[in-house]
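Here we describe the complex-level prediction in full. Unlike the single-chain runs in Section 2.1, the three entities below were treated as one system.
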Amino acid sequence: MSIPRRRIPSLVLAVAGLVAASTAAPAQAPVAKPQRIVSLNLCADELLVHLADRDAIASLTYLARDARGSTVAREAAGIPINHGLAEEIVPLKPDLVIAGVFTTRNTVSLLKKLGVPLLEIGIAHSPEEAAAQIRTVAERIGEPARGERLASDLLADFARLPPVPANRPTAVVVRPNGFTAGGGSMVDAVMTRAGLDNIAGRNPADRMGQLSVEQIVIARPDVLITDAEPGAPPSLAQEVLRHPALAAMPARKISVPGRLWACAGPELAQAAAILAAGAREAKP
Amino acid sequence: MILSATNITVRRGPRTVLHDVSLEARPGEVLGLLGANGAGKTTLLRLLAGLDAPEAGTVRYDGRSAAGIGRAALGRQVAYLAQNGAIHWPLKVEEVVALGRLPHRSDAATDTAAIHRAMERAEVLPFAGRTTGTLSGGERMRVLLARALAVEGRALLADEPIAALDPAHQLDVMELLRDVARGGTTVVVVLHDLTLAARFCDRLALLAAGRLHAIGAPMEVLTPGHVAAAYGVEVVAGMQEGEPFILPWRRIEDGGP
Amino acid sequence: MSRFHAPSQRLLIGSLGALVLVLFVASLLIGYAPLDVGGALSDLIHGRDTLGALVLLQLRLPRALLGAAVGFSLGLTGAAMQGLMRNPLADPGIVGVSGAAALGAVLAFYSGLANVFALALPLGGLAGAAIATALLLALARNGTGTSLLILAGVALNSLAGALTALALNLSPSPYATLEIVFWLMGSLADRSLDHVALALPFMALGWVLMLRIGHGLDALTLGEDTAASMGISLKGLRLSATGGAAAAVGASVAVAGAIGFVGLVVPHLLRPLVGHRPGRLLLASGFGGAALTLAADCAVRLAPIRPELKLGVVTALIGAPFFLALLWRLRREAE
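The structure predicted for the assembly as a whole is:
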């Protein structure tokens, strides 16, 4: 399996909200604060960096160090990394492994067989679910106070957003490869809170589907949200975002880096603030 | 057109295929090229056609070099009929013959007339509309000959044109070549049949191991001694209706007859 | 000389041209969202900056233009390579020229070179195609046996495919490995006028080079010696065919990926209609290729499959059975 491929599912699934999953595995009562925590998932990486003592983190995924996708690249720089392989994890003798429910499944099932304590986190579909997930992880790693602070700050940030107007500007998210974010996803929830009407949310058929440039243009959104990164390495996926037809659209264009709303974390509020500012300027 | 080869030498790696060969073919005559397999007949014919260049020596056409005449002009003046000529696509017979007009790019009426003449002479008119995939070996050879005739060049060079033909068609083709020469064309033909060579060629050139062993009138060239030296066979020769025949009879074993 | 059946030839080219025109218009009419094409056209002509005009000009037009141009390139190249090698299986996809072009384009694109210097993309494709064609030609002088041609194709295709996969794996972009499908199967989705401007000059150069060699390919029917004796420059012929194929296929693959089998199916279907004359087959195959590619691209948009099928999937569904049937027949003839 190629290295970059693994990141796609984690990003795409995390943001698209394809399947609702349980936010936590049945938690055993923590006997003691785990001291050698290993993360197998980028979202777990970010939560650990925010919540755990640095010394308690035994390993993060290699994705945590990539500033294009990770919000904690700077903090992760000195922490050992793994590529999701069981052979890397077992010798670390972790007393807690945090994994995503959709990623590194083979490693997870092997670790289960070996009796390694495991916490699986699902995909949050709303700021409230994100807050719940933050609290769950914090509880499990023995840092409930930090978790509570992070979660309530997040919810407070959302509460401070301007009230949602009755007549919301329409918007659509275009991601590399023409992927969009449909109804029920975290992105959809954040857009709604920020006062935008997600066009892709209306049609259940394109919940996590790809949209052609033509569909996007014809849909006449008031706001076009992309996460084109200026420094991204060349790919056909990014080419879609630079299509001249999108550039020529009269819509207001907002760029939101995907890492801000790919995971349950404090950055969600940042994404919402960017969108809310855009929504105010783009009256329908 | 006078085709002249002067002091031709050709090497293939360490092997000398032709060694200091000089000869001339003149308008109105049929010059037969004879020799055992590997003696250099085809190599010489290709040089005369301008397909290859010799390492040493010159080939001239009425005193001019191939480069002086130009590739396209040479194509209009010298027709070449390859050995075992292939026809790679199942074209219609008349279209294959029409390819002979390709070097000319003249007007339609001129081309059509030339194509018709060539098909008539090579006796392929009866199957002009068939595709080449359906032809017998002999018919194919005649179609290819007709293609070469359609060039209506001043020289016709044919590499073993009768090898695949039955006796009747062999005679037909040799008569046709004679007839073409009578019209003023220079004809050079590679042959293996000594009798037909003797009967239909005005002069013969006998190659042995890359050297010109003998050249001249048929009966001066096809002496038992020359044939033995060139082919390693003993012949039976005689006269029939005032014309010579020569048949290979037995192989000469090492150590002489 | 080419006057035999000239009227029927004109009729064939005329009908194929008309077919391409019809499919071109159909391609403009078919899309993912309802569009009043007439209104959009009038907006475009009168310089009105409407959404319809935008969709027509920036999305449907480049797609239709590329469909026609890429198809023309593939059909024409198939006919030219088959004429040159005198083998009906010499399709740019089967013999590995398209795969090598994809490798060249991938290297130019994912290295970031094409971002700095846009022409690097078609030039990369061209270089890949040129190397593969030259290799093939060196391997296959004097009429090419089918088995040699197919084996050369297998070797070139697997080498180019492996190197393409390697290049994509080493690329820093997280999407790169998913994009191998585009390069190996081809697509015209979401292409822009920029792509047309980038590729069309190279394709046109390739067309001119290949359309000039009709007489030479006709002469080559009788073998290289006979062709040379008729004043055809074999070196010039090979250079034109190779250069033309490299330019047309290289540029096509650089913007649309490797769309297979067009160069096999189209010449095969049209050959009887031009009396098997390789020279006459050239222009006819160009138009035929354009028609087939436009039709396939309409089909992927009409088929209820989303995300849309790669174009190469459709052409392979049509082409691969053809290929097998052709192999079957050649085998029988060889027996």
